[in-house]
Design a protein that fits this description.
The chain contains eleven helices and eight strands. The protein is of the alpha/beta class and 282 residues long. Helix 4 links the parallel strand 1 and strand 2.
């Protein structure tokens, strides 16, 4: 049975409420914190944050798939918004870049994550970091507010990605930009990987084709779209075996299908394109 957007969102909300209470090692050993732990010693998705200024281990749940804040061109005094802010990791790194004259707003739809992030901010006396509970398709943020938007392994969890892109455009100031790390696909995933609810909350089944993802950004009016980083995501056999037969695993590995983490940069134009009557675009 096909699940509705609300049912899929509830799966993610429930899983991420559990993740908020798990230790980082458990989260890092599985796909975005979901599903059975892998016995493989390496981390499936996330990159190493520990060398970045503003890094706080308590706020790092090991759920990311990139380092968008590293690429986000954040300047002193910027207003930065983090979509799916979790325990606050990317927000605190963004705060290091924007400084005390800037402002950082984290948006997350899981109350347990919001509570954890607020506690982390209060413990550190970060008065210019704020966390708001809400959907990233309808952010509780005024239009034309943000200089920069970042997000790390979150949009792939949202069924209606087009709505998120529209709201990113709304909330960015003219001339503002985003840097988003996300999971995308090249080729068709085996059905066993796509249909499982746990894998949905674990990033993979909610991912869309890379080309479709980039087209979605362009279709919503963004310019200067650039892939800042790309890396393959290797899912260990002890996770794959939960979803695929031995033969399917073999075929999956030798085929052209791939799961990738990409970090994408794009800008909201300084001026809107206005269609003039008679120009042939109306």
């Amino acid at each position: 049975m096909m699940q509705t957007e609300e049912q899929l969102k509830e799966i993610v909300r429930k899983k991420y409420s559990e993740i908020a209470l798990q230790d980082k090692e458990t989260n890092m050993s599985s796909c975005c914190g979901a599903g059975g732990c892998s016995t493989e010693i390496y981390n499936i998705m996330s990159d190493d944050y520990t060398e970045l200024g503003g890094y706080n281990p308590d706020a790092d749940l090991g759920l990311g798939c990139g380092l968008p804040t590293q690429f986000a061109k954040i300047k002193t005094g910027d207003v930065v918004i983090d979509l799916g802010s979790g325990a606050g990791n990317d927000c605190f790194i963004a705060r290091h870049e924007t400084g005390e004259t800037g402002k950082v707003i984290g948006v997350d739809f899981t109350s347990a994550m919001i509570d954890k992030a607020r506690t982390n901010a209060e413990l550190r006396g970060f008065n210019n970091v704020e966390f708001r509970q809400g959907d990233i398709e309808h952010m509780p943020i005024t239009s034309n507010t943000a200089d920069v938007i970042v997000s790390n392994c979150v949009l792939n969890l949202v069924p209606n990605k087009n709505a998120v892109m529209k709201d990113i455009y709304r909330v960015l100031k003219p001339g503002g930009h985003f840097s988003i790390s996300d999971v995308v696909l090249v080729g068709a995933l085996p059905e066993g990987l796509r249909k499982d609810a746990e894998m949905y909350a674990g990033c993979v089944a909610g991912a869309i084709q890379k080309e479709v993802y980039l087209e979605l950004i362009q279709a919503n009016g963004f310019t200067n779209i650039t892939i800042q980083k790309e890396k393959p995501i290797i899912i260990p056999d002890d996770i794959l075996i939960n979803y695929l037969s031995a033969n399917e695993i073999q075929q999956f590995k030798i085929g052209s299908t791939g799961i990738f983490s990409i970090t994408v940069y794009a800008e909201k134009p300084l001026t809107e394109k206005v269609c003039v009557p008679g120009a042939g675009c109306c």
